[in-house]
Amino acid sequence: MSEKNPYIIGENYFIRTVTHHYTGKLTAVFDNELVLIDAAWIPDDGIFMGAVANGSFNEVELYPDGVEVILGRGSILDACQISW
Predict the structure, then answer these.
(1) Per residue of the chain (84 residues), what is the pLDDT tens digit?
(2) C-beta of residue 21 within 8 angstroms of C-beta of residue 14
(3) Which of 33, 41, 46, 49 to pair with 59, CA 20 to 30 A apart?
(4) E strand or H helix at 48
(5) CA 22 to CA 43: how far, in whole Å?
């Protein structure tokens, strides 16, 4: 965590935006964006606590290897570190 934001580069996150949910490894934090690699779009997270606790999603769509996913920070509802 830095003094400017609560995110930790190199950690894996589950991020809910106003329209979509994502998982991935955080590689960069900018004033208005987060950048993830090894990312997935989660169309259906199923039971939310199960998803956060152990990654048991109903549906997962992986981004291709090496693709950076850029998320607008203004669209983020919440984010949590995940270790699974």
Answers:
(1) 667 899 999 999 999 999 999 999 999 999 999 999 999 999 999 999 999 999 999 999 999 999 999 999 999 999 999 998
(2) yes
(3) 33
(4) helix 48-54
(5) 9
Please report where in the chains the tokens 């996150």 appear, as a residue: 13
Collapsing DSSP states into helix, strand and coil, what is residue 54?
Answer: helix
Q: Give the DSSP per-residue string, 7-20.
A: --TT-EEEEEESS-
Q: What is the pLDDT of residue 2?
A: 60
Contacts of 79 (CB under 8 A, 6+ apart): 7, 13, 14, 15, 16
Phi first, then psi, for residue 54 (nearest 5°) are -145, 10
